[in-house]
Amino acid sequence: MRSIRLLVVVAATVLIGIVSCAPRTVWLPRANGVWYNSSGKLVHWNRNRFPLVIALDSSISFVDFLHMNIAMEHWNTQVGADVFVFDAERPADIYFEKTDLPDVNEEVQLQGLASLQEFDGEVINCRIRLDVATSVEDATVVLVHELGHCLGLTHDSWPGSVMFPHAAESGRQILQDDLEFVRWQRVGILNQK
Ligand SMILES: [Zn+2]
Q: Could you give the domains of the chain?
C-alpha cells in the first residue's frame, strides 16, 4: 500500500483585487506556479469534487467566517464559476481553523498555513490555518492566498500576484495563468453552462 504524501505550504499576506480575463479554448498546465508531486504528477483536484466544500472548525468566529466568505467569493468571481461553497450537507474538502502558528523568526510571523494531502496527483483534502495574531485588515487577503494553495497553486515570483509570498511586496491580482489553472480543473462543470 502506498503512502499518502503531505505537502506543506507556507503562507503570506496578499491583497485581493480584480484582473481582466480572456479565456482560452486550449490550455495546458504550466510548469511554474503549480505543484508536482515526488512522482512528477501534477497536483490538482478531480473536477467531480467541485465546488469544493469548506468546513468551519469550532475555533472559527463569525468574523473569521465573514473573511472566508469574502475570500471564497473573490475566487468564484474571478474564475467565473463556483469554486468554493459552504454546504453542511456534503463532506468537507477544505477544513478552516484558527490557531497559534509558530513564527518563522523574530521578524517574520506566519499568518496563514495551507496543507494539502494528495495521492497520485489528486488532492484528497486541504487544511487552512489562520494565525490568531492575524489582523482583521489582513485576514481576508491571507485567506485568498491560502485558498490559492488549496487549489494547487504555489508562490508566484511577480510581486503583483496574489500568490506572492511576502506581504510587504504583494499585489492585488490573481494572475491569468493561475486563473487558467483553476479553470482547467473546473472545466467539466464550466462546459455544462
Ligand atoms: Zn503561501
A: 5-9+34-187 (3.40.390.10)
Among left, alpha and beta (phi > 0; psi -120 to 50; other), residue 71 is: alpha
* Global pTM value: 0.80
| Cell 487558467, located at residue | 180
Distance 58 CA to ligand 1 centre (A): 24
Q: Is 84 helix (H, G, I), strand (E, B) or coil?
A: strand
Distance 145 CA to ligand 1 centre (A): 6
Nearest to 101 by CA among 123, 75, 127: 127
pLDDT tens-digit series, residues 118-171: 888 899 999 999 999 888 888 888 899 899 999 999 888 887 788 887 655 555
Q: Do the Cβ atoms of 186 and 39 come closer than 8 Å?
A: no
Taking residues 166-178, report their average pLDDT. 71
